[in-house]
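TA notes, week 10

Several of you asked for a full example with nothing omitted. So below is the full record: structure tokens for the whole chain, then the designed sequence directly under it. When grading your own attempts, check the secondary structure regions first.
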């Protein structure tokens, strides 16, 4: 298939610039793999589409406030760094802009002296390896909590006043460059209601990389190389999934990240069991799903790998029809937008 097969027209005003309050008041499109019916509900209705004995799988990754702004020692020039990966303790791989101000050996000051950093190496891809220094009573994560900003997607231009609104209420494992946005709709009260219905809840961790926003450049989608991301599927979640399947329940992935984790484990291991590794799995139409029976997700960018994944699960023509309907019904799109459930 071609990248252009996954294009749809989206008016700019439908790109959500801020999250709704309360979290579960976003709209929810209800879709079925077995029919062409489309229902329009709200996310707080999601319990009506879950059955006793089902299990929800949530990604409990937590977003790093990884965008930091500093000044160059000696010149005072402003530089922005986006932390991509922790190599060891205070050594990080980053994006820097403007790059010409972050040459090897350059030093920077952050937060009026709360922290400093030195560029130790410039990689072939242009990324910088920088080493932080700060007061011995601090650590890099407490520093980022003080000076860092959320690395919001480029299409969100409004300032986020509350950093926790770009975290799920169950976020736990720090390490993502972006939020698993399908989970942003859940509240503690809604999770409790779901649990009381007899729906089990399990957790995986997949740290979302900045490559999730990388566009597909190859016209033939089969030629696209996915970015790699690290995941962990704990034993208790694997046991829950296997028991759910054995008892005839459904496994419903919350978000494409949870989906990719479960499908990666099934592909790598031939079964669902505890696993911890990197994955660059690319799911597009023609893929045969090995684990999930349902999917909760947001509305994704045109020509993105995420809309391709949804098309693989729900069907290509039905997915494009659902997106066309969402535009006509003025759903809110992307990270802070509305949701769909497919079962």
């Amino acid at each position: 298939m071609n990248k252009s097969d996954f294009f749809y027209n989206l008016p700019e005003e439908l790109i959500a610039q801020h999250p709704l309050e309360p979290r579960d008041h976003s709209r929810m499109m209800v879709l079925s793999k077995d029919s062409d019916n489309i229902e329009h509900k709200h996310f707080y209705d999601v319990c009506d589409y879950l059955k006793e004995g089902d299990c929800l799988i949530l990604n409990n990754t937590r977003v790093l406030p990884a965008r930091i702004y500093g000044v160059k020692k000696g010149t005072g020039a402003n530089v922005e760094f986006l932390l991509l990966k922790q190599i060891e303790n205070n050594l990080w791989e980053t994006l820097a802009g403007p790059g010409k101000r972050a040459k090897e050996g350059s030093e920077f000051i952050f937060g009026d002296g709360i922290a400093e950093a030195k560029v130790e190496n410039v990689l072939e891809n242009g990324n910088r390896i920088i080493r932080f220094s700060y007061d011995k009573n601090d650590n890099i994560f407490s520093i980022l909590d003080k000076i860092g900003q959320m690395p919001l997607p480029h299409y969100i231009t409004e300032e986020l006043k509350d950093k926790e609104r770009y975290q799920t209420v169950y976020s736990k494992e720090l390490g993502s460059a972006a939020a698993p946005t399908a989970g942003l709709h859940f509240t503690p009260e809604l999770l409790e209601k779901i649990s009381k219905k007899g729906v089990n809840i399990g957790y995986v961790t997949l740290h979302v990389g900045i490559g999730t926003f990388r566009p597909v450049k190859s016209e033939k989608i089969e030629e696209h190389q996915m970015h790699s991301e690290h995941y962990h599927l704990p034993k208790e979640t694997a046991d829950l999934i296997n028991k759910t399947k054995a008892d005839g329940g459904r496994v419903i992935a919350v978000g494409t990240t949870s989906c990719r984790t479960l499908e990666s484990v099934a592909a790598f291991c031939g079964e669902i069991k505890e696993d911890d590794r990197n994955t660059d799995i690319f799911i597009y139409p023609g893929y045969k799903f090995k684990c999930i029976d349902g999917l909760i997700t947001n509305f994704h960018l045109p020509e993105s790998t995420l809309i391709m994944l949804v098309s693989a699960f729900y069907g290509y023509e039905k997915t494009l029809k659902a997106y066309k309907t969402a535009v006509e019904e003025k759903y809110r799109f992307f990270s802070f937008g509305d949701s769909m459930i497919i079962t």
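The first helix runs from residue 140 to 147. Use that as a sanity check on your answer.
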